[in-house]
Design goal:
- The chain has 452 residues and is an alpha/beta fold.
- It has a single domain (28-182, 233-451), classed as Aldolase class I (TIM Barrel).
- Helices cover 40% and strands 13% of the residues.
- The protein has 13 helices and 14 strands.
- The protein has helices at residues 29-40, 48-62, 83-104, 157-179, 184-196, 205-220, 229-232, 245-250, 281-288, 303-313, 333-347, 374-391, 436-451; strands at 67-72, 108-113, 126-129, 132-135, 236-241, 252-254, 261-263, 268-271, 293-297, 322-326, 352-355, 362-364, 370-372, 397-401.
- The strands form four sheets. Strands 1-2-5-8-9-10-11-14 form an eight-stranded parallel beta barrel, surrounded by six helices.
- β10, α11 (333-347) and β11 form a beta-alpha-beta unit.
- The radius of gyration is 21 Å and the shape is globular.
- The model has no long low-confidence stretch (mean pLDDT 95).
- Bound molecules: phosphoenolpyruvate and cobalt (II) ion.
Length: 452
């Protein structure tokens, strides 16, 4: 493995001397440079102190004293952008978080795939549309999803549009999470509606009833449920895949308090399964920013690969610095995960183990839509908990793709969506997401796994 010689220190642009996978070929370099300069002059989205706060919260999860819920769109969209959509997505994440807090008995660290999740790695740079071969869609930060040649030409002005949409999304999230929308009693009331409204939901009645009793108990002890800040405000963090490095570099700033570098495009950044090469540009970039960072880990990763990644991305072994997000698929998890847990545990690397039960379970349905089976998703989660139980490690969290909208993108779940229904409300521009009911169903299922 090559290490960076000590004579070449990290800089926000040191990634440029490494091979960078999955970068768009921008048609006009001059335009890209102009946009880069513009972004570099715009205010940061987050403050370095917040990123440090999140590292500490994730450090608790690395040590078995917190649980992480990372959730949101596969790809945020420029066209499906509204206050209602942001509210509904936040609402379902908050509902899941309450259930998971009860199930785990520890604080839940809430991290959205939101306010910056606009770029997608693709397995092929082109796709066939009719008799034409056109460039693949790479997320609204890069090009448009319309299946037409001209729509797929990368446009650097989209980087600025993504920044601006992130600013307004984050602004509303901050308002909702600090302004009363996240009130625990309210979120619990929404969950009770879910439990009461379907036969399937009723299997979770004792969890909902347990939360209810806990709230009554607190009130009986004299805790004023409406006056207590911690019961109606929550910390909500943003994250996205740090894919388009021109964008991430332009938003990387030196913290005036510590002089350290932070990528101020989000609180947490991760590197994807297709861009986690140890000597590649993405790991180089993440290695030097001081935000909490993550890496996806797929079924091809060996124990040595994962240890090398830990050394590369968290050589100081700071708890909370590194989250490993495994995405094996239901058929591979029992075989693939335990050796990695053992290796990382034996080497003493403090990582947060998070299960992404989505990306290893994708397939194409007869009608041509990408989809996932709810049962496979739950199956992978069960394997995740089994592996941690057998290795004596802490199952640190879950990472899911969801929306607050009533979409028909994943099969099964409470409403038992079948293949013939996928086309009804299939609005994702990339991977299939859980709808609100499926997401809650998953949270109750995970709460049961945590309790047992
Ligand atoms: C994603 O999280 O949307 C994604 C592309 O994941 P992965 O890198 O694990 O394939
Ligand atoms: Co995805």
């Amino acid at each position: 493995m090559t290490r960076r010689p000590t004579s070449t220190p990290w800089t926000p642009d040191s990634w440029r001397s490494r091979p960078a996978a999955q970068q768009p070929v921008w048609p006009d370099e001059g335009e890209l440079k102009r946009v880069h300069a513009q972004l570099a002059g715009l205010p940061p989205l987050v403050f370095a102190g917040e990123a440090r706060h999140l590292t500490r919260a994730l450090g608790q999860a690395a040590e078995g004293r917190a649980f992480v819920l990372q959730a949101g769109d596969c790809a945020e969209s420029f066209s499906e952008f509204s206050a209602d959509a942001i509210r509904d997505k936040l609402k379902v994440i908050l509902q899941m978080a309450v259930v998971l807090t009860y199930g785990s008995g520890v604080p839940v660290v809430k991290v959205g795939r939101i306010a910056g999740q606009f770029a997608k790695p693709r397995s092929s740079p082109t796709e066939q549309v009719g008799d034409q071969v056109i460039e693949s869609f790479r997320g609204h930060m890069v090009n448009d999803d319309l299946p037409e040649r001209s729509a797929r030409v990368p446009d650097p002005n989209r980087l600025v549009a993504a920044y601006q949409q992130s600013v307004s999304t984050l602004n509303l999230l901050r308002a909702f999470t600090k302004g009363g929308f996240a009130d625990l009693s309210q979120v619990h009331a929404w969950n009770q509606q879910f439990v009461a409204s379907s036969a399937e939901g009723q299997q979770f009645e004792d969890i909902a009833e347990g939360i209810d009793r806990a709230l009554r108990f607190m009130a009986a002890c004299g805790i004023n449920l409406t006056a207590e800040d911690s019961l109606h405000e929550v910390d909500f963090w943003t994250s996205h895949e740090a894919l388009i490095l021109d964008y991430e570099e332009a938003l990387t700033r030196r913290d005036s308090l510590t002089e350290e570098w932070y990528d101020c495009s989000a609180h947490m950044l991760w590197v994807g399964e297709r861009t986690r090469q140890l000597d590649g540009a993405h790991c180089e970039f993440l290695s030097g920013i001081n935000n909490p960072i993550g890496s996806k880990i797929g079924p091809s990763a060996t124990a040595d690969d994962v240890i090398d990644l830990c050394e590369r991305l968290n050589p100081q072994r700071v708890p909370g610095r590194l989250t490993l997000i495994t995405r094996f698929g239901v058929d591979a998890i029992d075989r693939a995960l335990p050796p990695l847990l053992r290796a990382v545990r034996d080497q003493g690397h403090p990582v947060v183990w998070v299960c992404d039960p989505m990306h290893g379970n994708t397939f194409t349905a007869e009608g041509g839509q990408k989809t996932r089976r709810f049962d496979d998703i739950i199956g992978e989660l069960k394997g995740f908990f089994r592996a941690h139980q057998s290795e004596g490690t802490w199952p640190g969290g879950v990472h899911v793709e969801l929306t607050g909208d009533d979409v028909t993108e994943c099969l099964g779940g409470v409403e038992d969506i079948v293949e013939g229904q996928l086309h009804q409300r299939y609005t994702t521009t990339c991977d299939p997401r859980l709808n609100a009911r499926q997401a809650l169903d998953l949270a109750f299922g995970v709460a049961e796994l945590l309790r047992s």
